[in-house]
Write a structure and sequence with these properties.
4 helices, 23% helix, 6-stranded mixed beta sheet, alpha+beta, binds zinc ion
Length: 153
């Protein structure tokens, strides 16, 4: 994956939000929330556990895990689970999302459907793709992951 910057988990600190006046983001806490959500994944078919944690611009975290179905189509990814939870609680402004899953040689990024749903609420979202052992994190953003996006912009 060429877009983004690989950093160590321990180097993740507080991300200043800048102009909005909101609190700084604790990026390590967001990644840990995604890691914890991953443990609750329901994935008896793929056995591929994914956790996500979505941070609102006012500092609230909504986590999610993938939930599979025997008929496959109703399966939902961790990222969309988090978005659905947040939106159903009345939150629509997001600043960051962390995703944790395990692949030996790569980071796990949101699928195209999840990227599109995240983009529905804005492209200014930092994305943290972490290894399950927290050895490293690929830092990128939604604009980089969804260039020339389709949307209401
Ligand atoms: Zn997805």
């Amino acid at each position: 994956m060429s877009t983004g910057k690989v950093v160590t988990f321990s180097s993740l600190g507080m991300r200043a939000r800048g102009t909005c006046g909101c609190a700084d983001e604790d990026v390590q806490a967001l990644v840990r929330a995604a890691l914890a959500a991953r443990q609750r994944a329901y994935c008896p078919y793929s056995r591929f556990q994914v956790g996500a944690a979505l941070l609102t611009t006012d500092g609230e975290t909504f986590d999610g895990c993938n939930v599979e179905s025997a008929s496959y189509t109703p399966t939902i990814c961790a990222e969309r689970t988090a978005v659905v939870k947040a939106v159903s609680c009345g939150r629509r402004q997001f600043s960051s999302v962390a995703v944790v899953a395990h692949l030996e040689d790569s980071y796990v990024a949101p699928c195209g459907v999840c990227r599109q749903l995240l983009a529905e609420f804005g492209l200014d979202v930092a994305v943290y793709l972490a290894k399950v052992d927290l050895s490293s994190v690929l830092v990128t953003d939604l604009r980089a992951l969804l260039p020339l996006s389709f949307g209401k912009y």
